Amino acid sequence: MTVRSLALEDHFQHPRNVGSIPAGAPGLVQGRVGSHGEGVLIELGLRLEGPRVAEARFKAFACGHTIACCSWVSEWVVGKSVREAEALDAATLVVALALPADKVRSADWAVRAVAAALRDATPDGVK
Known about the structure:
Elements: H1 6-13, E1 28-35, E2 40-49, E3 52-61, H2 64-76, H3 82-86, H4 90-97, H5 104-118, E4 121-122, E5 125-126
Antiparallel strand pairs: 1-2, 2-3, 4-5
């Protein structure tokens, strides 16, 4: 019998913040990780207002666990400072979504997407 996390199932069945932030939006930073060849491709857009994330949107070609992680991250990151967002680690997602041990890589992908989006940000906002 498989124990399933209600939060995990909810974020997979009803992913939040799917889509993209319009190009050219003020404060937009974007990251892309993975590739179709790897079986995971995530595009994450964050709109910063000063040092805080005001909006997050993602697109993902991935398994359900990775989609759920991206959905959770897209909610969690809003309101966080750049530094707080940069400090996110996979262990936080594993606990929050009760990810099975064989799906920890899904959390890693989502965290890498946040880091990729923030590569063009400073603690005070967009470079």
